[in-house]
Amino acid sequence: MRIFVFIFTVVMLFSCCKNSNVLPSSTGNKSDILVVATESYWSNNKSKIKQIFEQPIYGVNTVEPIFKIIHINHFEFKNIFKRNKNILIFGENIKSSIHKNKWAKNQLVVFLNENKILSKVSLNKTLKIFEANEIDLIKNEIRKKSNKQVEKDIYNNFSVKTFFPSIYTIVENKENFFWASYNPPNIEEIQHLMFFVIDSKSASDKKCLNYTDSVISNNIFGNKDNTYVKIEELYEPVCENNICRGLWKLQNGFMGGPFLLKKYYRGKKTIISVGLVFAPQKNKRNYMKNLEAIL
User: Fold this and answer.
1) Band of the pLDDT at 133, cuts 50, 70, 90?
2) Which fold is adopted by the domain 32-143?
3) How many angstroms separate the CA atoms of 276 and 27, rounded?
């Protein structure tokens, strides 16, 4: 009996210790950043911070910020606020540092010393950290319910690793061309994902865009005759780090939306992955972040 009581006590103690280390789930949206700073520091630097973090996303046909900034003072930063998904803390006696899962799961906390000059360069670096973390979170969410067979096919045919959502319907799955779409019933929303190959070991951005325009024009059509999808020429795509963002339109029709293109160099070939979104009643930010995570 004593042995049983002893074992039970040890198990309970171990369980309590283990549970005390379990973090709560983070709260808030992935698109929000909670900024913790004194009122005076915020007043002096608010415009700088918002100029970087709330700059409009390029490549969408609506004005939407990259992140939404929410400010609170240090004395307010307790309890539920510490579980926020994205936190940026400015303080006098702190060391600039980055922490994942500090007070909650799937959380990113960045500390910046307020005595250092707050430059656009440093703010842009911090922005990139939050952006990369958001993409990682989305990838982890997709991976839980992804289509493993499609991921295998894409890797075998294009040498590109991806996490592919299971909600998409496969339209074509060939050695040099892959196409999937998502068109839920009773919702005005369409998404297309494509992978294809250019026989060039280092195709330029312009060549990739022209080739993509040809591919989508010959494959994605509207409901009426002589309507087809093409890249919008009046809104010049912007390309950076092998990613292009821009708008597409339905030629001879009235549809349009954003697209995101990624290119990968694989030996003597260039692999193009592109995603297109049509969701006229909704903001496009989260759609584009999802495409970036998938492609």
Assistant:
1) very high
2) Chitobiase; domain 2 (3.30.379)
3) 30
